[in-house]
Amino acid sequence: MVYPMKVVSRLSVRCNNMLLVMLIHTILQLSVTAQKNLTPFGIASQSTVYGGTLSNPNNAILPPISNDFDLNICSHTKDGIDPSADWWMFQFSFELAYITDITIYYRTEFAYRMDGFKIYVTNTSAIPPNGYLCYEDSDPGLPNITQNIPCYELGKYVIYYDATGDELYGPVVELCYVAINGEITFEYTMCMHISHNYRT
Ligand SMILES: [Ca+2]
Ligand SMILES: [Ca+2]
């Protein structure tokens, strides 16, 4: 796989730090790569949970792959609690993932709540997100409730962030299915890849 130069640059810094650690601890890390949907390798969280144990954020990473809404199969943040922004976040259990694209199935007939959403890939769980903005719904029309968003970025977190709400309820996030596609790769493997392909 060929990585964009911005990714290579960031990784080079991480590689230098990592190699130092390796000298001290002489840790041999094995390469483990997972293809395609990476959501089995982590957990989801969200700003608030509507309906107690229902509308769990992890509903969004489990089937069915559908826009059909039910509190048992979709995530749903509380309405009117925090008018500034609502969010849904996926955290990888691995240190680093290379994310190629993100597929979203939003609640059917509720595109107006999806309006204004942003997708970030970050290295921290900070809110508002502090990282790479993969996509922002900035046009005046309503977004398509089923989307595939290219990203091509390294990170530990994927954050769906929405600060755009209506006057009645404020921002609300209702995700019925999310797939995060890419590769999970230990940094050691990434560094060896860069060393082989990019260093002069
Ligand atoms: Ca819009
Ligand atoms: Ca919105």
Automatic annotation (TrEMBL):
Residues 1-34 form the signal peptide. Keywords: Signal. This is Fucolectin tachylectin-4 pentraxin-1 domain-containing protein. It comes from Mytilus galloprovincialis (Mediterranean mussel).
